[in-house]
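Ticket reopened. Same input as before:
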Amino acid sequence: MGILQEEITRRSVIAGAGGLVLSFSLNRAFAQEPLPAMPPAPPETLPGSLDDERFLDSWIRIDPDNSVTVFTGKAELGQGIRTALLQVAAEELEVDPAEIRLITADTGRTPNEGFTAGSQSMQNSGTAIRNAAAQVRALLLAEAARRFGMAATELRAENKAVLAKDGRRATYGELVSGQMLHVEAQPQSALKPPGTFRVIGKTLPRVDIPGKVTGQPAYVHDLRLEGMLHARVVRPPSPAARLTEVDASAAEALPGVVAVVRDGDFLAVVASKEFQAVNAMRALAANARWQEGETLPDQTDLAAELQRLESEVGTVAEAGMLSSDGKIFEATFSRPYQIHGSIGPSCAVAQMKADGTLDVWSHTQGVFPDRAAIAEMLAMPEDKVHVIHMEGSGCYGHNGADDAAADAALIASKLPGKPIRVQWMREQEHSWEPYGPAMLMKISAALDDQGRIASWAYDLWSNTHSTRPGGAGALLAARHKAEAFQPKPAKLNISPSGNGDRNADPLYVIPNKRVLWHFLADMPLRVSALRALGAYANVFAIESTIDELALIAEADPVEFRLRHMEDPRARAVIELAAQRFGWDNAQMPRNRGRGFGFARYKNLAAYLAVAMEVDVEPETGRVHVIRAVSAIDSGEIVNPDGIRNQTEGGILQSISWTLYEAVAFDRTRITSTDWSSYPILRFASVPQSVEVHIVERPGEPFLGTGEAAQGPAAAAVANAIRDATGKRLYDLPFTRDRIRNAVGRA
Amino acid sequence: MVSLTVNGSPHQIDADPATPLLYVLREELALNGAKYGCGLGQCGSCTVVVDGEAVLSCMVPIMLLEGREITTIEGLGTIDEPGPLQQAFIELQAAQCGYCIPGMMMSAHALLRRNARPSEEEIREALTTNLCRCGTHMRILAAIRRAGELMQAASLPAADQGRAG
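Engineering reply: fixed in the latest deploy. New output:
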C-alpha cells in the first residue's frame, strides 16, 4: 500500500456545498508526524509538466457518466505518443486504455506543454499524467472510504470503480463531484510498483494505426469543413526575393478562383476546388516578377563559409589541461544542410469566425507558441486565436507546419467566414522548410602510451538549431507580408541538453578536454530543429575519432569504448549491442566491414549503441548496410514495441541522411526542390535486418526514445565503411562519388 | 461529366477531365487513403490500383480512367472488417506517421494480386517508387510478407481479396 493512501486516511476531508475541498500534505507522511504551522512556502516542484499546470483536473476529468478524459499538451507526430500516454494513464487510474478519451494539444482545452520535441514527451507529459492519475486514484479511494466508512486500505480501484471487500462498489463517476479534482497536485504520488503493472511495459497496439490503414480521416490534410476553400501560396523563387510586380488577371480568370491575395511579398490564390487552386497558383507564379539576390554561401567551400560566419565562441566543456603529448589524431568533419523531408507537405486549415475569433488546425509541434506567433502576426489578442493540433505527416522536427498554419491564418484573415485550407506543394516544402544546419567539427585528440585518451580538443561551427516560434518573425508569412516581422536574432546559449553543441562533450572519461561552440549568428539558409539537433553530427565526429584512436591504440573498437566508459548503463548497452551483433575480430569478406556507434542522447537521456555490417562496391561507390543491431536503455519501458518502432525508424532515417542527403543550392536559389534533386533511402537499399534490443529498467525515470539513434547510427555507418575500405570519410553524406574518390585514391 | 468506377461503385464526376485522379478521390469522393506527397510521381503516397496495376493517382487525369476499375485502400476493407493487407499492417504495427502507408499497401496489393508468394526482391522491386521518411521499411516489408500468408491461409486466390480489385 502506498504512502499516499495511508496518508489520505489521516487527512482532513471537508465536505463543501459544491463538492469536496481537500487539503493534505504528503511531506507529513515522510516526517511521520504533523509539522507545526508554517507560513506559506514557495510552491514545491511537481513531477514533469505538472510543475507548470498544477491542478489535477487540467490533466484528468471524470464525468458523472463515468467517462474518463485525459489531457496532454503534447501532440501525436507519428511517434506513438498517444498510445504510450494512454497506457500510463490507464495503469495508474486502473482503467482499460480503450475506456479513456485522450485530448491532445489544443489551446482551448489542454495544458500548455510547449513543443512536442526533444524526445521529452514521456519525461514531461508521461510523468505528469502518471502522477496525476495516481493522485486522482488516491482521491477516489479516499472519497469511497469516506462514503463507505472504512479505511482506504480496505478498498481497491478497478475498472473505473472502487470496490470494497464487502462487495460494495462505487463508480468513479459516482464518486467525483463538483471541484473534487480541482486541487493542486502533490510532489509525491503513490505510483503503482512495477511488479503490479497491467498496461505499462506491455506492447499495446498503436491506437491510430487501424484508422490510418483503412482510410479513416487521420490528418489535418483530411479535414473537410463546410464551405471550405482551397488556397495555394506562390512562394518567392529564392530566400531573399522581393515581389516587384504581379499581374493577377490570368489567375483570376481561371475557373473556380475566388480571390488572389497579396500582402507585400506574400502572394496566394484561393479557389473552390483544390486542383483549381493549383492551376491558379501556377498561372499567378508565371505572371509574378521578383527581384532576387545572391545571398547564399558558396556550397563548394562550405567549411570556409561556416568559419567566416563565426560571431562568438562558447565553452561547452572544459577539464584539465590540453596536451599534445603522445600519439595525435586530428581531423575535420562536416555535415551539410539537410531537410526534414516530410512525405506529406505541410497543411493547415484556418477560419476567421463572425465573432472575431480565429480557429487554426495545424500539425504544429507547439499549439501555444504557434498561437502566440499567429496572434502577433495578425495583431490579434492571443485569446482570440485557437490553435488545434491535428496530425500531419511525420515531421522529425521543425518543418513547414507552423508556416502553413500562418499562411492559412493570414489568408483566412482576409476572407472572413470561409474555412481556408492551405497545402504546400512538394517544391515548397523542400525549398522553404527550415533545414537542419550545416556543421563543421574539428578534433585534435592525443593518446597516451597506455592506450588511453589523454587530451581532447573539439571545435564545432554551427548556427542555432532552433528558430521555432518565438514570435511572428519565425513565420514565413509574417516575414513576407507588407508589415513585415523580422526573425529574432539568434543567441548563443550553452545548456545541459545542448543545441548545436548537443552531445559535443563526449561521455567517455577523458581527463583533459576542451569543447568549444563557434557560434554563427547569421543564417544565410533558414535553419531550425531537425531530429537530434547537433547530436547527429557531433556523435558522428566523436565516434569516428574514437575508432581512429582505437586503431592507433591497436584496440578493438568496442573494448576501447568500454576502456573509457564508467557509466554502467552506457556499458550495458555497448555490451548488449556487441553481444547480439556477434562482435568479433574475424576476417570479413573483401569490401565488407563492421562498425560501432554509441551515445547517451544529450548526455542525460537515452543510451543507445548500434553495430552495423556494410558492403561497399568500390566500382560504383554504393554502400549497402546489410544489418544493424542496436541496444537502447530509455528508462522505464511503457510500450516496448513503440520503442522498437521509433528506434528502427531512427536508424533507417540516419542511414538515409548519412549516405544520401545534402541540400543543394547556388548563390541565389535552393536547387534541391524534389525527391530527384534530394534523394533519400529507397527500398532497394534497405538493410536485410534491423534489430532493437531494449534494456529493462523498471522503476527508473522515462528517458525518451525518439532521437537517440540518429548520431550512433551515422557513426556506425562511417566506421563500418572505414573497416571495409581502410578509408575514413569525414564529410557527410557518403555519396557514391565521395566513396569512389576515397577508395580510388589508395 | 466523367464516369469513374471506384471500389466497385460508379460515380459521375463533375470536374475538369484533366484533373488528376488524386484530387477527385480526395475532394469529390471524400476518400482519405490516397495522399498528396509530391504531385510529380516521385514518392508513391498517392498510389492506387487501376485494373490491377499500381498507378500514381497524382499523375493520371480522370479522362483516361473511364471504364476502368479503380481500387483505393478503402476498397480493401474497413476498420471493423479489415482485409488481409490491412490486418497484416495492423498486426505488424507497420506505421509510424502512416502518411505513406496507404500508397505502400496499394503497391503491395497490385503485387500480391498477381503473385501471392513474392520473393523479398520482388516485394522491394514493387515498392521502388514508394518513399517512407519515418524509416518503417522493415515493418512494411514484414507486413507485406504476412499479408501474402494471410491471403494463402484464407485459401482464396489473392485476386479475390478485398471488395474490388
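DSSP finds five helices and five strands in chain B. Chain B touches chain A through 58 residues (CB under 8 Å). Please confirm and we'll close it.
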